[in-house]
Structures are given as C-alpha cells and as structure tokens.
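Methods, example record. To illustrate the input and output format used throughout this study, we show the complete record for Sulfonate ABC transporter. The sequence lines were provided to the predictor; the line carrying structure tokens was produced by it.
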Amino acid sequence: MTSIARFLRERWALVVGPLALLAVWELLSRTGVIPETFFPEPTRIIAGITIIADAETGLGIDLMMTVFRLIVTVVLAVLIGVGIGIAITASQWTERGISTVLAFVYPIPGVLFFPFLTFILGRTETAVLLTALVTPLIVMILYTVAGVNSISKTLIEVADNYDCRGARRFFRILVPGALPSIVTGIRISLGFGLIAVIAIEMVGAPSGLGNFLWENWQILRVTDMYVALLCIAVLGLLTTVGFDGVAGRILPWQADAGSTS
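The corresponding predicted structure is encoded as:
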C-alpha cells in the first residue's frame, strides 16, 4: 500500500464531517432557506480564496501574521511553561501556592489582559503576543506539573540515590517522565493559542486573520469574511493533524496503542 493510500485510509474520517456540513449549507443557500446575502454558497466562498494572493486585500499577509503569532505564542508557552512547571514541583509549598494563583487566573479570558498590558507596553506587537500567551502558558504549566507528579516515586528515589541533580535530573528524569503529559499540553495549547491569537487580532491588532475578518464584517463584505473564517478553520485543522503526526514520532508507543485499540 502506498503512503498516499495509507494516509487517505487513516485520515478520511477527518474530512467527512466538514464536507457534509458544507453540502447542507450549499443546498440551503441555493434553495433560499437561508439568506444568501449573509450565508453565501460555500462554492462561492471557495472561489473567493484567490484573495489570499491579492496584493490589495492583503489576506496572504494577514494569514502569515496569524501563523507567526501562533508559532511564537506556542513556542514561548512550551519553553516557559515546562520550565516553570518543573521548577514549582521542587517544593509542595511552591506548587500549592502557584497552582492557587493559576486556578485564579485560568478562568479569565486571556484577551481581557490586553487593556492592562497596553497601559505598560502600548498597542504594540509585544502586547498582542503577551496577551495571546496567557492561556497557553497556564495550560503548559498545569500539564507539566501533572506530568512530573505522575513520575514513579521509585524512579525519583533511584535518581536521588545516584545523586542525579541539576541539569541531568531535568533532562534525564523529569522531562522524559513528564513527556506524555507535556505533549498533551502542547496539543491543547495549540488550540487555545489559535483562539487567543484570533481574539486579540479582532480587538487589538492591526493585522492578522482576526483583524481581516472583523473589518470585513463591519462593512458587510460577507464573502471575504467567510474566506477568512475558512482560513482559520483550515489552519486549526492542519495544526491539529500536523501535531498529531509529530506527537506520534515523539511518543511512538502511544501511536501504536492508538492504532491497535
């Protein structure tokens, strides 16, 4: 079996749901059940994808800005979150204290931090990135702490007996032991990161898919608005599928378990 055939066999279910939804939408719009003005046919929206390469609309640049912000946000969340998550597990006092703070901040939508950050940084790209970083960072810290706490106590005692400390303990015991939970945290952070980036682009960024969607909604350029929405959906799908492929290489035993279950 070729690699393409194997890929289609494993991934066909991913496209069935979206295709069925688009088919129903197309039928309802063409028959006038839903107003075409606000819900144009999906085929017309797909035909409008060419605006991605249109220099005047600038959707291509907005798409690249959103991807750039998402990558920066998730990379910072992983690097900082894993470091903080492992560091606070060094003491029960720090773990309980910081976990309480995180539980207090976590329910607050990340976009609400933007006004406070603008007091300090102004409406800058740094304020946009830091606002988008809040929720993915908290997710990474919580999942890293859970991963470290799931490491076998026997393994920790063996490391203590062999005086495995510092960087050796970090890279050879804690990070590998917490890796399954960290990978799950990254997957969830990607979703939260995309939501946060789009939300902050809608209210505070001068560019990006969220900004493009919001501006076209205000002037009722509906088709272009749906093209931006389609780009966001495809970006989210590619992010999830792409990371699942990477996670399967990082944790091959989990991929094997999933394929045999």
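Annotations derived from this record:
The mean pLDDT is 85.
The first helix runs from residue 3 to 30.
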